[in-house]
Amino acid sequence: MSCLLLNYLNKGLIEAGCDEAGRGCLAGAVYAAAVILPEDFYHPLLNDSKKLTEKERDILRPIIEKEAVAYGVAYATPAEIDSINILNASILAMHRALDMLHHFPEHILVDGNRFHKYGQIPHTCITGGDGKYASIAAASVLAKSYRDQYMRELSKEFPQYGWSRNMAYPTQEHKEAIIKFGITDYHRKTFKHTK
Question: How many whole angstroms separate alpha carbon 111 and alpha carbon 131?
């Protein structure tokens, strides 16, 4: 599949790919990553993180972290999500991930169709970008991997919600647990929890 991924939109520019994970969840932070890859980066497994198994993401994460020119992973809290809404919180997390890059990108590739300008750096929004561009795919792998790790840690404190399995997505198991046990401080108060 990876042979279909493009290494850049603008040849010769330092491009950072951005993506988020956890936008549709009922609890927990939303995570985002920004990744600048070498122009010739290739790995046969690399793809949109949603199309990869957990094992494949675990293989890719250290490879991306080692071979990337630069990467950053950041998040926005449930309180921030409730305060500014999930779209703005996702973009905030992407900006925070970009802040962590020690190489200055000249262009930003964003998965999705909405983004707020980041300084003076031009950006391009690409719907389904995590399945089209290697840097966005790499960002999707890091964001998903870091967020899953975070949810597994939270699950130790709140095992009744099944977060180690459902990662706080609105599964039947999670919704039934909310009905039975109520919500935690990690739940997003502005989300509909049991519909």
Answer: 9
DSSP SS3 for 33 = strand
Burial label for 183, CB within 10 Å (0-12, 13-18, 19+), is middle
For the entire predicted model, the pTM comes to 0.95
Give 64-92 pLDDT, tens digit per residue: 999 999 999 999 999 999 999 999 999 99
Q: In one letter, which amino acid is 165?
A: R
* Inter-residue contact 163 to 28 (CB < 8 Å): yes
Q: Which CATH number is correct for 2-181, 3.30.70.1620, 3.40.50.2300, 3.90.76.10, 3.30.420.10? A: 3.30.420.10
Q: What are the boundaries of each domain within the chain? A: 2-181
Amino acid at 100: M
Bridge-partner residues for 124, per DSSP?
109
